[in-house]
Amino acid sequence: MPSEASGNAIRYVIPVASGKGGVGKSTVTVSLALALARGGARVGVMDADVYGPSIPTILGVKSLPAMDEGDKIRPVEQDGLKIISMGFFMTPEQAVVWRGPMLHKTMQQFLNGVIWGELDYLLVDLPPGTGDIQLSLCQSIPIAGAVIVSTPQDVALNVAQKAIAMFRSLNAPVLGVIENMSDYVCPHCGVHDDIFGAGGAKIMAERLGVAFLGAIPLTTVIRRASDAGRPVVVAAPDSAPARAFFDVAERITSLMSARPAGADARPQVTF
Amino acid sequence: MNNSSTAPLEIGRTNVHDLKIRWADGHESVYPAADLRLACPCAGCAQQSAPRPPGQIRLLPAGIQAIHPLRIELIGQYAIRVYWSDGHSEGIYGFDRLRAACPCCIVKRRA
């Protein structure tokens, strides 16, 4: 059942979360969104990391959203994606120093005050943690399934499982776990090096009973492409790192299509 | 986390005061409005219902028996918010807590 709010019809809302910061959530969000869009899906990206918005940089967005006559925000459209971010409304030198109510209001504005139109997927790039923004999102719109990003080392996995616990406590399904920065291959000598370890996310996913969605390698190619505003999925779609993102996106679409009928059913309120 | 058998299917009322929930496992719970209002889980009400030192009385909402729900709002996939006739609407009632607080189940457990 699409989530309909303010004229929008969004089929699947997929938050991308990690618990811990610095594990590559935003890069993964953008890359998955682009991979889904290349598969023909209508995709939106909501940058909910209001403290450190990085989606505009990763996508190299130069334009700004416009306001329509009804004071609604028309999202930036680029590379087949509809994009909204706090980064569009502040300069890089400014900081967001807000308490919960303001964050909640911003989430409401991003969900209901933006002309998303009809979307198959809305990917929501969450900030680190299990706080106000995560709670506001889960209270405001039905979640189809959360994607958890973690690097393989224990310090990230220990926090990632808190994100899984949070979604479960809010009865929001967890689609699975992505291991980012999984394997480093030296571009000069070809030697593999597990800088942050390897396989930890898969073990955690099995232990917690969620799907393992795939592993994304640690490569300079991804970092360089993201910094240049041309994510690897667009800049080098045939490369191994891009294929890793396409594989994960395909698993997500498979999981979505395999959902049982009525998975999105909400209780009927008669009052 | 709610499991699928105890997810609510229908939320309504039996009369102007009492709230009714039909759960996925077929069970029906009826919650008297006054009890539900007194069990409001918001920070302010929870503080009122917390254990207090002897001599410190609990302040109940005025006309508690007349208070009734005006509107129910679904909160995400895990809870409801009740808009009460006394103007209060801060409490978010999780489905898990509501199921655990089903009056007839409590009676059965005590029997």
What is the mean predicted local confidence, pLDDT of chain A?
92
Strand segment count of chain A? 14
CATH class of chain B: Alpha Beta
> How many helices of chain B in DSSP terms?
4
Order of helices and strands of chain B: EEEHHEEEHH
Cα(first) to Cα(last) distance of chain B is 27 Å
Q: Helix tally of chain A?
A: 9
Topology diagram in text:
The complex is a heterodimer of chains A (271) and B (111).
Chain A: E1 3-5, E2 8-17, H1 25-38, E3 43-47, H2 55-59, E4 66-67, E5 73-74, E6 76-78, E7 81-85, H3 100-112, E8 118-125, H4 132-140, E9 146-150, H5 154-169, E10 174-179, E11 184-185, E12 192-193, H6 200-208, E13 211-215, H7 220-227, H8 232-235, H9 240-257, E14 268-269
Parallel strand pairs in A: 2-8, 2-9, 3-7, 3-8, 9-10, 10-13
Antiparallel strand pairs in A: 1-2, 4-5, 6-7, 11-12
Helix pairs in contact in A: 1-9, 3-4
Chain B: E1 8-13, E2 19-23, E3 28-31, H1 33-38, H2 43-49, E4 69-75, E5 79-84, E6 92-94, H3 95-100, H4 103-110
Antiparallel strand pairs in B: 1-2, 2-3, 4-5, 5-6
Describe the structure.
Helix content of chain A is 35%, strand content 22%. Chain A is of the alpha/beta class. In chain A, α3 (100-112) runs parallel beside α4 (132-140). Chain A is globular and about 60 Å long. Chain B is of the alpha+beta class and 111 residues long. Chain B contains 4 helices and 6 strands; from the N terminus they run βββααβββαα. Chain B has a 3-stranded antiparallel β-sheet with strand order 1-2-3.
